[in-house]
């Protein structure tokens, strides 16, 4: 618009203000005045249009988001279009359009992905947002040009939608397990806590017996990872010390055999049971396993400090869906005498969670595996399976952590296949012969916290079907001998006649 100058004292101001400008002693030429008048007329023809979008706070996966496009104009509305911007702004994908000319709206997404709802002409609601909805959005508003009524004047605004996802799975495992037990050399134990599905990356830390652990980080995290690299600070008091029970006392080396095992005593040569007036009685496996199951536990012969150093590290692994997998590792020198039955927990903090997620494990040495033999009454020629069904009562939750290593050996000899030992939860003896009757088998369960042995005896009964086949073969042998003699006599008779 054309401005009006302030009049001097006593000067008359014209009503339209234009002649007043002309009387300002050449301060404004007629040409300049024409330019101002043209600009004023153009402004009246085009009108004005401003677009603003309210910022959005971070939202959690599954929530509903409302995108509000606020605009002001004195012109006639043509359309409102919402875009989703991808690939750093190089691609703009239409997601919703409102056509003011026909007063209609429609989505530009496929039917199976249509999730946009029009609330008002300029407001769109996205129900149940996903991680893939994270990113910038733009609202484009168009009005008609007042001068031509054919051209459309556009203005736009943008907003960034931040979608957070809490971790959906956390787990703790022991690294490099199953592993054997070492009696004379110290071992390191590493717990690995894995948190999946978080966006942004969660913060992971460890506790022992409910107290945060003071750790030494052996990685150099970036500035963005400072939150997740902190593993907490433990209280001033030392780790909980536990009184050693009788099973944890050191054994005398003189009581061990050359292989480092405790002596087998009478279980090495089981004997049959005979009663007066009866035939030799072969007891069933059910009666043999119980009295002849021997459990021995062994602990190391070295001592460590009651307050070990814990080393912490973590890694971030980006996923294709935008989430981050975090793996945190806690490593220390294991002391089985103190760490046995210790409770370690992994806690995960995330801005999308109202309280931390937690998973925990209890370190426990094996306490004697429980063995099951199938079939319970093995016969000659059967396939026998000896399986570990669990552990004796005493382990927390009857579970052993870290995962134990199972080793099978035969006392006083080799296994049926000729090997000295086998690993696994099950020992398979195929087509057992009668010679294995009364043989003793040892199952050794061990993890870095300790080792334990369990023995069981195999009783093999006679197989009636195989005995019948053997008798038939024995009966056929004399018949074959008689047939052979008959043929020999016939050949001799023919020979004599020919001569």
TrEMBL record:
UniProt keyword terms in alphabetical order: Cell membrane, Disulfide bond, Glycoprotein, GPI-anchor, Immunoglobulin domain, Lipoprotein, Membrane, Postsynaptic cell membrane, Repeat, Signal, Synapse
Domain of life of the source: Eukaryota
Subunit structure, interactors included: Interacts (Ig-like 1 domain) with NRXN2 (via Laminin G-like 1 domain) in a trans-interaction manner.
Protein name: Immunoglobulin superfamily member 21
Taxonomic classification: Eukaryota, Metazoa, Chordata, Craniata, Vertebrata
A GO cellular-component term linked to this record: postsynaptic membrane
Topological type in the membrane: Lipid-anchor; GPI-anchor
Keyword Repeat: yes
Functional summary from the UniProt entry: Involved in synaptic inhibition in the brain. Selectively regulates inhibitory presynaptic differentiation through interacting with presynaptic NRXN2.
The UniProt record lists the keyword Cell membrane: yes
Protein source organism: Oreochromis aureus (Israeli tilapia)
Location in the cell: Postsynaptic cell membrane
InterPro entries xrefs: Ig-like_dom (IPR007110), Ig-like_dom_sf (IPR036179), Ig-like_fold (IPR013783), Ig_sub (IPR003599), Ig_V-set (IPR013106), Nectin/Nectin-like (IPR051427)
GO terms of biological process kind: heterophilic cell-cell adhesion via plasma membrane cell adhesion molecules; homophilic cell adhesion via plasma membrane adhesion molecules
SUPFAM superfamilies (UniProt xref): Immunoglobulin
Predominant location: membrane
Ig-like domain location: 62-155, 369-459
């Amino acid at each position: 618009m054309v401005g009006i100058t302030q009049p001097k004292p006593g000067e008359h101001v014209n009503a339209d203000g234009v002649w007043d400008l002309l009387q300002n002693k050449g301060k404004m030429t007629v040409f300049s005045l024409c330019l101002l008048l043209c600009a004023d007329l153009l402004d009246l023809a085009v009108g004005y249009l401003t677009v603003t979008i309210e910022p959005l706070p971070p939202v959690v996966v599954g929530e509903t988001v409302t995108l509000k496009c606020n605009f002001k104009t004195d012109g006639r509305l043509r359309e409102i279009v919402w875009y989703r911007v991808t690939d750093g702004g190089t691609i703009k994908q239409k997601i919703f359009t409102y056509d003011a000319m026909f007063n209609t709206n429609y989505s530009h997404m496929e039917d199976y992905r249509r999730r946009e709802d029009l609330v008002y002409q300029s407001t769109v609601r996205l129900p149940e947002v996903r991680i893939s909805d994270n990113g910038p959005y733009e609202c484009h508003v168009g009005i008609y040009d007042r001068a031509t009524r054919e051209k459309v004047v556009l203005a736009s605004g943008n907003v960034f939608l931040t979608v957070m996802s809490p971790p959906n799975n956390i787990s703790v495992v022991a690294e490099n397990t199953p592993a054997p037990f070492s009696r004379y050399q110290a071992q390191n134990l590493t717990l690995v806590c894995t948190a999946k599905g978080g966006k942004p990356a969660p913060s992971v830390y460890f506790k022992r017996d409910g107290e945060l652990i003071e750790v030494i980080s052996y990685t150099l995290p970036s500035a963005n990872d400072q939150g997740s690299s902190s593993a907490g600070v433990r209280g001033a008091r030392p780790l909980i010390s536990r009184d050693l029970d009788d099973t944890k006392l050191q054994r005398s080396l003189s009581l061990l055999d050359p292989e480092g095992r405790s002596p087998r005593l009478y279980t090495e040569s089981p004997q049959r049971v005979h009663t007066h007036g009866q035939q030799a009685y072969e007891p069933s496996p059910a009666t043999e396993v119980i009295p002849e199951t021997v459990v021995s536990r062994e602990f190391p012969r070295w001592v460590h400090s009651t307050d070990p150093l814990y080393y912490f590290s973590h890694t971030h692994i980006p996923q294709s869906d935008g989430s981050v997998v975090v793996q945190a590792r806690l490593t220390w020198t294991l002391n089985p005498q103190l760490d046995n039955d210790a409770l370690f927990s992994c806690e995960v903090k995330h801005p999308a969670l109202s309280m931390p997620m937690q998973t925990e494990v209890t370190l426990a040495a094996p306490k004697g595996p429980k063995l099951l033999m199938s079939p319970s009454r093995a016969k000659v020629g059967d396939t026998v399976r000896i399986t570990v069904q669990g552990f004796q009562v005493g382990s927390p939750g009857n579970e052993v952590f870290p995962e134990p290593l199972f080793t099978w050996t035969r006392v006083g000899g080799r296994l049926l296949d000729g090997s000295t030992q086998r690993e696994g939860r099950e020992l398979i003896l195929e087509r057992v012969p009668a010679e294995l009757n009364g043989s003793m088998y040892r199952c050794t369960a061990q993890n870095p916290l300790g080792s334990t042995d369990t023995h069981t005896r195999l009783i093999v009964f006679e197989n009636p079907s195989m005995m019948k086949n053997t008798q038939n073969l024995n009966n056929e042998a004399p018949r074959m001998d008689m047939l052979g003699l008959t043929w020999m006599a016939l050949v001799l008779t023919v020979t004599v006649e020919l001569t």
